[in-house]
Amino acid sequence: MRTLQRVTVTAAIGLAVLLSAGHQASAQTKIGAVLSVTGPASFLGDPEKKTLEIYVDEINAKGGVNGQKLQLIVYDDAGNANNARTFATRLVEEDKIDAMVGGSTTGSTLAMIPVFEDAKIPFISLAGAIQIIEPVHKWVFKTPHTDKMACEKIFADLKHRNLTTIAMISGTDAFGKSMRDQCVAVAPQAGIKIATEESYGPRDSDMTPQLTKIHNTAGVQAVVNPGFGQGPAIVTRNYRQLGIKLPFYQSHGVASKQFIELAGPAAEGVRLPAAALLIADKLPNKDPQKPVVVNYTRTYQQKSGQAVSTFGGHAYDGLMILVQAMQRAKSADKSKVRDEIEKTKGYIGTGGIVNMSPTDHMGLDLSAFHMLEIKGGDWTLVPGT
Amino acid sequence: MSLRALLEIRLLPAILVAAIVIILPLFFPSAYYYRIGALVFIFALAVVGLNLLMGFAGQVSLGHAGFLGIGAYSVAIGPVHFGAPSWLCLFVGAILSGAVAFAVGRPILKLKGHYLAVATLGFGLLVAIVLTNEAGWTGGPDGMNVPALTLFGWRVHGSDAWYWIAGATFVGGFLLALNLMESPTGRALQAIHDSEIAARVLGIDVARKKLTIFIISAMYASVAGSFLALFNGLITPDVAGFLGSIELVAMVVLGGMGSIFGSLVGAAVLVVLPQVLTIFHEYEQALLGLIVMVFMIFLRQGIVPSVTVALAGWRK
After folding, report:
1. CB B140 to CB A174 under 8 A?
2. DSSP string computed for A158-180
3. Is residue A3 in a domain?
4. A369: which strand partners?
5. Among A219, A245, A275, which residue terminates a domain?
6. Burial, B283: exposed, middle or buried (Cβ in 10 Å; 0-12, 13-18, 19+)?
7. Among A14, A80, A89, whose Cβ lies nearest the Cβ of B32?
8. Does any CB of chain B come closer than 8 Å to the CB of residue A135?
9. What is the per-residue pLDDT across A239-279, written as a single tens digit (0 to 9) for each?
10. Under an 8 A CB cutoff, do B16 and A3 touch?
11. Is residue A283 part of a domain?
12. What is the average pLDDT across B177-199?
């Protein structure tokens, strides 16, 4: 009997465990989220989760949406696309959500798209890559700006200064690689010539050889550095050590106070594109985004006790676009809400002013980015951008 | 035939596993359960392979997710870049994994001790790095789409279809592993596990037998990886990551080293448990660790062997 018994016991335990996986029923509007709260992408998922919780509470305290309270269901995929897909299936089949906000990384978002397309549930992603909205998926939207826009913003500023020939030095991490590819792709349209290209690994500690090579390349008028983390800070230090005088551009990937601290005085004069959220207090009063970003910054810092990041801002925008669409649709009907999200016009968020259309499920333009220059160890707005 | 004689049929465990595969869906209220079921069988397949290596040959592989990655990216890269049919790529991936295991294992398994663990650790990391950096082929860190599997004109789609495929393949793999253990190679391995010196005295080519089982276990993992990729329709390099390898080892140890049936139990626990624990929100990870610890403290041999021993004692 031994084998039979051990099999039946195990099967019974397995079943009990499977069946106990929660069922809850209520007449609330359910919003699902799968975020990378732990793991290597937790710098994205953690502020996103906190933001959603803070604002869902706030909306419920004011009576909810269309008279219904919101119920937020968050799962942590730990940055793993396979987990994300499982939780997406669970949100659809078990939790029976009405709409979805989140998917912190591009990988987990791409893994979840087929689930929500099949189930016909509106899905607002918080991940960066352009593949999420190109080609357009009927039910999928996203709030963060793309790397392509950062490239275009830098190139526009270069043209403004009559500089057309550049060199690029890129990190080989996910961010650096993605942005580098986008920059190379849009350079010809922008009328920019990339004279030479160098790269460095995420853990390299000296980039002077690459920079020396760039310095010795004839005709280079400016240098662009797509990258994330500490790499760009080292590049910036090496850049000054070599005494290179050419204008130097960093990406939105380093738009945090940490970069200025790491690079020190070498960061002086470096330009980079960044979202309004980072310079909330420096925006001119007439800027339409000013009240939104100042309010979000204050609320988030007060409730979470942490500094704001643009990632939490993306979650704020996703939730608000969804809630406003539900209000316009006067229901949580999935198809009506989807149509209303697509009709979002003039929504002022932390990431920019959103104007969606059937062919553009992001709805941001270059005005979402502000060109900054580091002066005196702080950000300053470059006038006229 | 008496009940006793019936129970001594060698294939009985396989028949019971097949019965579990068939009966479980009767209790599935939605496609989500089919998905969890399919994931359990896919991971269990890889764990059976690893269990052969760990439980019988006494060697640890800390890079087994690397073979999962090779299998997964074979069915992604083959159809996308070469237009090859997915089923063919699945076999090519398995053969490739076997060849890599041969190359890695041949020099190392001649040595005594746990050199294989270190070598496979490095191998697993290498695979993950290549998958991340060769963006032109693999799509880089964001992963790449995997075209759906087409079998005789039928486009395999949906959690229920994959539940049946994964379940059937697992039963096949389970049967194969049971037979292997009864074969001369299997008996030789068990002898090596008990005493390597005694086995050597009996004329068993220890290094060769270990190498054979390492290649077989790599091929099991590769097929599981291919299934995972085809099932999800998208694959990212984290499939081959170090954490993935550790998870596979944990499944083997939890279910019970040397217990083929334990492989299924170990995989089931570690796939299902995180889903159940989500109700505890922030404490999810801590509880998962705690439960695994409790299992290991009180069921030291792994779930299946410990429970079997306890039941045998209780019957007396």
Report:
1. yes
2. HHHTT--EEEEEEESSHHHHHHH
3. no
4. A275
5. A275
6. exposed
7. A89
8. no
9. 999 999 999 999 988 877 788 888 989 999 999 998 888 88
10. yes
11. no
12. 86
